[in-house]
Each structure stands twice: as structure tokens, then as C-alpha cells.
Amino acid sequence: MSIGKREYARRRARLIAGLPQGSLAVVPAAREQLRSRDTYFPFRQDSDFLYLTGFAEPEALLVLVPDRAQGRELLFCRERNADKELWDGPRLGPERAAEQCGLCDAFPISDLDDILPGLLEGRTRVYYTFGRYPQLDRRLQRYLHTIGQAPGSVGVPELVDLDRQLHDLRLIKSAQEVRLMQSAAEITAEAHCRAMRRCCAGLYEFQLEAEILHTFVGAGARQPAYPTIVGGGTNALVMHYCSNNAVLKNGDLVLVDAGCEHRGYTADVTRTYPVNGRFSGEQKALYEIVLAGQAAAIDKVRLGAHWDHPHMASVEVITRGLVDLGLLRGDVSGLIEAGAYRRFYMHRTGHWLGMDVHDVGDYRVHGQWRQLEPGMVMTVEPGIYIAADDDQVPERYRGIGIRVEDDVALMKSGPLVLSSAAPKTVAEIEYTMRQGAVQEELW
Ligand code: GLY
Ligand code: MN
Ligand code: MN
For 256, how many CA atoms within 13 A lie in the half-sphere containing its CB? Predict the structure, then answer.
């Protein structure tokens, strides 16, 4: 199951339909990233380029020309090369690439200097995202400069950022995309279950990470969508913790934020659970507040709501919970207005999710929070983090960090939690962890 040729063609047609006559759009593939000497990082295709082509190779470029009679879509890519293919693996080459991507025209990337300037000439606008690939930026600027200098030149096309148009398309997922994201979330949920079953005191955080990666790779999702966070105890308080090199301690919680990338689509799921399989009273009290805050936020992922509604709902529940526990003092609405909760809940409740983990799409339109629409997919991830040295709260609560994160698609019928297979309630988590302990004894 993956995106078919027809869907790629539909995406390009939609983008072209939004471009004015006389314009042209340029969408490059990602560059290979050198790791050291002759060793490269695993190649990850540019999400915009992948969205429009499904083409997996570097050194490629898509050009869209709305009013070109000989064909509106041109792909440039590497030619076949027996020597290079012997060392680095097969290349499709222009002919097969055109066939695979459902494009009528493909050319060798080595011909770009001969063909692209001619296409640019006389255009009124060029849609292109500057700043991502500096070498291509310079090349385009060179082409434009030459066009401007040519005798009888009618001027240089205006450069316009392509992001707005393209990312509005990427923001609304098709049924096929939601299905792929469901698969990514299911693999990820299975990985979290495995980690829960294998978790025990004395493991290094990276050993729990290994359990997560074992499931991802075993399912064919070779790369995580982002660096996995496994934070035991106070490491959970570091938002972007990823050194994962401490030992997990009996009595601590562990926060695991991990998601795979599967066929170009990501998952982003966090679970927090006790290293020894049993929540203490304080851990449970705080955990239940986060969970209730998340449920309230998910319930706001509905038609008619706007982007901020889920966040406001979780802030309200978490603030009230902290007041009930005595960690905040005062009237709930006053505390919300003053932002008092930010001492314990310092991030927002989610972000768009898609081909990128922090996916594209504006959160505000004309200065207003965006209305939620079917096909939008977002994370819902409230948390409570109590600093280890916060002497305003009773000692037994200090140093605890909790986040619960799920991936939610807005369907016509309401919110669909794609990652619901990952245990989440206290009872589900303790049950899953007990299963792991029983298996351990049987072995
Ligand atoms: N894992 C990154 C995030 O939750 O946003
Ligand atoms: Mn997230
Ligand atoms: Mn996350």
C-alpha cells in the first residue's frame, strides 16, 4: 500500500491549477549529506519533491509550467551509468523515471543548464523556495541574471515563495495518506508496547530505545521520524533530550517519545510509565491530570473548532488539576489568564503531522487561528514537568516529567486517534508491563 501514480498526478494538477498563467514552479530533490570523507548520511528525499513525484533519488528537479503546450510537467534526473550503478545501486534514468512518476517528459539533470534558462525566459513569476538548497539558489540567480542581461530582455521574472501554495495542499491529507499515517502510528504503537514489556530498572535508556528501533526496522520503517527520546527520571524534563545514556532507576518514570517514518509518512507518539511497572501515588495523580487534559483536547479536534481550541481545553484541565493537587493556588481562570500553568506546562499541545514530523501548513490565516478541516492530522501532546529544584511544590512531586502524545486525524465524523493501540491508561500500562514481566519469568 503506497501512494499511486494517479494521486501524484492529481497533486501536481492541483498545484498547477493554483499557479497563474505565465508562471513556472521549480521543486528540487534533496541533496545527499556528507557525513565524513566518502560516507553519507542515509538519504532522505525532500518532502515537497516526494509529495509531487514519489521519486526517491537525489540530483533531481521538477519543473511545472502551467501554460506549456508540449507538456506542463518536466522532471530532470540522473542518467543511467553502469559504473556508478555498480557501486551505488540502480538509477532509474529519465525514461523509466517519467514512466514511474506518470510524467510525460524527463531529461538528464546534466541538461539543466541548457533547458531551464529557456523555460524561465519570458515568465512573469517563478515559484521557488529560496534558502533550502543554496547551490541551486545560486544557479537560479545566475540564470535569471543572464536572462535580465540578454539583449531585448523583457525583464526578470518575479520570485515568489512556493511554500504557501504547496503546503496548503500537503496540510489536507487524502484518504490514502491517512491510511499510511495509520500504519506508521500502528507500527509505532507496537514499538511502545514492546518497550513497555521490556522496561526494567538497570537498563540504559538507549537499550529501551533499541527495543523501539527493533520494532520499527522489523516492520520496514528503517528510519525514525525524529531522534527518539528516552528520558528516565529528571531527564524527562529536558524537552529535546536525546542522549539516552543514563541508567533507568527503580521508582522513576520514563518518558519515551518515539515515532517511525513509514513510506514517507510519520508518527509521533509519547508514553510515560514507571520503570518498575507500578505508578506511585504522586506519579499517578499527575499522570491522570495529563491524561484528562489530553482527552479534553482530543475532543476539541472537531469541525468548527480552530487550531487553538484543543490547546485551551488541555490548559484548562491541567490548570484545574494542578489547583486540586495544591501545586497551583488561586482561581483557575485567573491562573490561566496569568499563564501560571506555564511553569509546569511550557509547550503547546501539538503540531501538524504528515510527511514531516513538524509538518507544513500555517497555524494562522490572516492573523486568526486556522479552522480545523477534515484531512488535517495533528499531534495532541500535553504534559506536566516539575523542576527538581522547585521548592514551591511538595518534595514528593519534584523531578517528575510526564507527556502523553497521540496522533489524531480529523475525519468528517470527528477525531480519529491513529495511535490508539499504544497503552495509555494507568491500568493498560501496568497490565502491559506485567505481561512483559511474566514473559521474562517464563523464559
Ligand atoms: N517528537 C517531537 C514532538 O513531539 O514534537
Ligand atoms: Mn510532537
Ligand atoms: Mn513527540
Answer: 32
CA distance 443 to 432: 17
- The 10s digit of each residue's pLDDT in 391-441 is 999 999 999 999 999 999 999 999 999 999 999 999 999 999 999 878 777
Which fold, 5-169? Answer: Creatine Amidinohydrolase; Chain A, domain 1 (3.40.350)
Catalytic site residue from 385, 397, 406, 407: 385
Hey, whose CA ends up nearest to atom 5 of ligand 1? Answer: 358
User: Where are the domains positioned within the chain?
Assistant: 5-169, 172-442
Global pTM reads 0.96
Q: What is the per-residue pLDDT across 193-235, written as a single tens digit (0 to 9) for each?
A: 999 999 999 999 999 999 999 999 999 999 999 999 999 999 9
Amino acid present at 73:
E
Counting atoms of ligand 1 from 1, which one is nearest the CA of 405?
Answer: 4
DSSP 3-state of 58: coil
The fold for domain 172-442 equals Creatine Amidinohydrolase (3.90.230)
What is the distance in A from the centroid of ligand 2 to the CA of 351? Answer: 6
